[in-house]
Amino acid sequence: MANSAFLAAMVLLVGGFLLLEQLTFLSRYKRVLLHDYLWVIAGFLTIVFVNVTALFYLVGRRVLLKDTGRKLAHVEKQLQTPDTIVRDLSERLAAEE
Question: How far apart (Å, rounded) are the C-alpha atoms in residues 69 and 60?
Answer without folding.
Answer: 16
